[in-house]
Amino acid sequence: MTVRTGQEFLAGLNDGREVWYDGKRVDNVTTFAPMAAAAHSTARLYDLQHEPRFRDILSVECPGLGQRIARPFEIPRTREQLRLKREAYLIWAEATCGMMGRSPDFLNAMVMALAAKQSFFAACAPARAEAIVNYYRHVATHDLYLTHALLDPQLDKGKPRHLQEDPNIPLRVVDRTADGLIVHGIKRIATSAPYADEILVWPFPPSFLPGEEAYANVFAIPMNTKGLKTLCRPSFAAVGGARGDHPLSSQFDELDATVVFDHVLVPWDRVFLHEDIHLLNRMYKDSRMREMTAHQTNSRLEAKLGFVYALILRMTEISGLAQKSDMMEMLGEAVACVEVIRNTTRSAEAQATVDPENGVMYPDLFALQAGRALGPIYYPKLVDMLKRVGGGGLIQLPVTLSEFSSPIGEVLEKSLRGAGVSGLDKAKIFKLAWDICGSAFGARHELYEMNYAGERGALLSGIQREYGRKQYYTDQLDRFLGGL
Ligand SMILES: Cc1cc2nc3c(=O)[nH]c(=O)nc-3n(C[C@H](O)[C@H](O)[C@H](O)COP(=O)(O)OP(=O)(O)OC[C@H]3O[C@@H](n4cnc5c(N)ncnc54)[C@H](O)[C@@H]3O)c2cc1C
User: N or C: which end of the chain has fewer CB within 10 A?
Assistant: First the structure.
């Protein structure tokens, strides 16, 4: 195998998986309208790997694996390799306007990070370390697309898993056999699960208590594994009409899903950690996955914020407002948001350090964490700017752009034209803005940006707890106080 094409990716999805939508089993996820567009948009990302202008950034020869692999899989040992990773993340993110948060590079970077820290899994058992490394090799050499499911059903948040009214609901080990673990229960919000190749499961948040051992497991299995069911949320994919009517939701609605494990066998070679609450509570931090995944997620957010900024700017221009001082101020604030996120990755690369334990070059966590903390503030802020500049114009749009060539086209043209722009072209831009700030797709994106890096309170507390430059700054303070 080698880096895949879109066609190879799509062909792999016709594998008998059990995907449910609106109470019915989906026959073929690549043609079923509520999810087909996202699957095909993902396929286009795979195709980009073969475009000559991107090929050497999006993929790389890997002597260790004896073949060419997609860039996110490369274990970085130099700053230059980190830079190229960011370039690769940006190419994919820009191809989707930053609107596909769980494009394959996200989890591929995560699996790479887990394998690079195999020593962490060896603490569970040497066989678990071997399993994660072999799994990484498998995913990288087959260029697979993974989804992940971390969270249990919300249930009663005041109680641990084993003390819930029905402790069998959250996913847990119910048996061990010579072949592997038998797991049973539910996980939720696995984005892109209907059209991913495999699912990686590791429980989150890392706050496991004694008694919750059966729930503390990390493993990966193919999406067509017997007993695994994928239950989809309502699709926000705009079906039918011209692309310009729903420019983003017609292409990029990643479908989120609940995943149900009905006595599923997880072979031992796919078990990376099991029934160990102490290791599980350390995994998020000690596996150093965040350094690698946040490098991808901040790059993706950079592309998204840059796209929305450009749209706000264009809307001020076509509304004749670009030079008004309050709009200039607003745009200045948008630029600052883009630049802060843009510089988290570059700063993290500049301050990257090699971990002596495995020789891997890790981008600076604290620079990246700033992006994860500020993204949930910046994105809704930019969406609000779209609403501010668009005003009521966002709601008074034709049903479809084809109305411009209907008998009412002439009057539509008159009522919608803007500063130096035709009514049709202004409607296209405002429809794009609506997709971001008014549609169900847009609402999901705000929720995504606020939650994808974990519950915000826990994220911020973690940032403060782990902040590695705390001592440096408190020393400064103490020196100053001592000199008074
Ligand atoms: C669009 C979208 C896509 C996502 N994609 C994925 C994915 O692909 N894979 C994946 O694994 N996850 C995914 N997630 C899940 C995401 O990681 C979580 O939503 C996030 O971690 C927040 O967790 P939660 O939803 O359980 O909210 P909660 O943690 O339940 O938070 C909701 C509220 O409850 C409060 N709260 C919770 N517990 C307590 C408590 N004990 N005491 C007091 N207050 C409490 C919180 O402070 C918050 O205000 C996705 C989420 C969204 C919205």
Answer: C
